[in-house]
Amino acid sequence: MVRVMKKREWRQLGLLGLALAALMFSPMSAFAQQAVSPAQPQSSEGDKAAKPKSAGGYYIEFRVAQIGTYGHSYVVYGSPGGRANYADLHPMGGYVVMALGHVLPVPANTEWDPEVLKLPVSARYRRSLDAHQYQRLVGAVHSAKLNKQPYWNAVTNNCNHFIGVLAQAIGLRVPGQFQVSYSFVPALRELNESSHGRTSTRSGRNTSLSPSS
After folding, report:
1. Residue 95 and residue 12 in contact, taking contact as beta carbons nearer than 8 Å
2. Is 35 part of any domain?
3. Rounded Cα–Cα distance for residues 31 and 161 (Å)
4. Over the stretch 124-170, which tens digit does the pLDDT of each residue have?
5. How many Å apart are CA 182 and CA 70, to the nearest integer?
6. Into how many domains does the chain fold?
7. CB atoms within 10 A of CB 105
């Protein structure tokens, strides 16, 4: 089980991460550009607001858990009235390991931690899925869990990259993942719900995963 870090540790991690990112990418640091105040939480319990928009079919909801400077991206998916399933990617270990993960790849885990649901949800994006899309989604989650040595890196393979792969599996367009979760999920929603995004998705044209810089 992955320990949910204390707020003080997340603040320390955020400050260190911003400093490292500034050193590596200055003056084009996306963390520095995106480190804005998080949106007000919509719900403090994961599934109370996860009611389906319409009966039938399946769904996926991209969420941002409100914690620390970055937030944490994850997904909940399933069928209306059925059991909710969760998926995410998170680094293993404590503050030191996560700090190191801003420079080097560190061990990660795709095992779901129920403690995440105790965190407020600051942003969410919900999509209805047909049976074919849902099969592709389940396959993508399964493939991710087959990786016996997943890694986490704040720049090249973070929680945004993970949910971006799932979004792409169901035919969504994906924004650049080198931004904090607080802005990534709203950007994902905007990209796919704008008139241009809806047209591209329906026509089957999907963008590849964007560079993280």
Report:
1. yes
2. yes
3. 15
4. 999 999 999 999 999 999 999 998 889 999 899 999 999 999 999 99
5. 7
6. 1
7. 16
